[in-house]
Amino acid sequence: MSEVQNDQIRNNVRQNYKEIALRVVSSDNCCAPPSCCTTIDNQNISIEEISKKMGYTAEELKNIPDGANMGLGCGNPQAIADLKEGETVLDLGSGGGFDCFLASPKVGSKGKVIGVDMTPEMITKARNNAEKNQFSNVEFRLGEIENLPVADSSVDVIISNCVINLSPNKRRVFTEAYRVLKEGGRLAISDVVMTTDLPEELQDDIQLYSGCISGASTIDNLTELMKLAGFKNISITPKDESKELIKVWAPEHNVEEYVVSAIITAVK
């Protein structure tokens, strides 16, 4: 894929998430694509319900700043990150700051949480929430996950929620992740993986790319990319139960037949 094509994909993804960021969203309402006002069993599903289906607990959702949770994602990286007090955490594609705000109390005042996102409107939303709610150990940086605005060997844990699939250069993402992690640092990622080849018409659908479908990679491909970056102890575990959530992203295409959420972990 050429750099021009890569930029076209990034621009489309950025525009899509700009529109999401600019919407006024509360936990009681439907959110923006890929899960906007979707229905399960003919019932509108709220952001809180979507988040619970991803694996977030009611306790986690209770104290999140208003508007930070937009129901975006495909899992809960917090559940596998095993965050400790004093650690530095980096969230790839931090959006409105949802996972960053959850990580904040876990690492404490001696720790630090950095969110990186390429959409200015998301960064503004997240920064406003951090300031308004006095999250003093959280900061948000505008940038691409393929070119992280983060120093070498400065991060203990990298988390991410259904974002790496959106990158047209995943090898670069893992290379950058490896660069910024400390020795012994770890990945704790929720993302979608491809379980079987997508039909050609779905592969070429730019909107499905922004909707976390067309950009998904196979487990073998992701494993190889992570190995090339230098990671060890790589584990990618599909979650078949996630199909219930995924099937409402684009029901007309039966996307749950092609992609599934997975837990991805590795160590530098």
Automatic annotation (TrEMBL):
One of its GO terms (molecular function) is methyltransferase activity. One of its GO terms (biological process) is methylation. It holds the Pfam family Methyltransf_31. Transmembrane segments: none annotated. Keywords: Methyltransferase, S-adenosyl-L-methionine, Transferase. Residues 84-230 form the Methyltransferase domain. Coiled coil: none annotated. The keyword Metal-binding does not apply. It catalyses: arsenic triglutathione + [thioredoxin]-dithiol + S-adenosyl-L-methionine + 2 H2O = methylarsonous acid + [thioredoxin]-disulfide + 3 glutathione + S-adenosyl-L-homocysteine + H(+); arsenic triglutathione + 3 [thioredoxin]-dithiol + 3 S-adenosyl-L-methionine = trimethylarsine + 3 [thioredoxin]-disulfide + 3 glutathione + 3 S-adenosyl-L-homocysteine + 3 H(+); arsenic triglutathione + 2 [thioredoxin]-dithiol + 2 S-adenosyl-L-methionine + H2O = dimethylarsinous acid + 2 [thioredoxin]-disulfide + 3 glutathione + 2 S-adenosyl-L-homocysteine + 2 H(+). InterPro entries: Arsenite_MeTrfase-like (IPR026669), Methyltranfer_dom (IPR025714), SAM-dependent_MTases_sf (IPR029063). It comes from the Bacteria. Its EC number is 2.1.1.137. It is an enzyme of class 2 (transferase). The keyword DNA-binding does not apply. Belongs to the methyltransferase superfamily. Arsenite methyltransferase family. PANTHER family: ARSENITE METHYLTRANSFERASE. This is Arsenite methyltransferase.
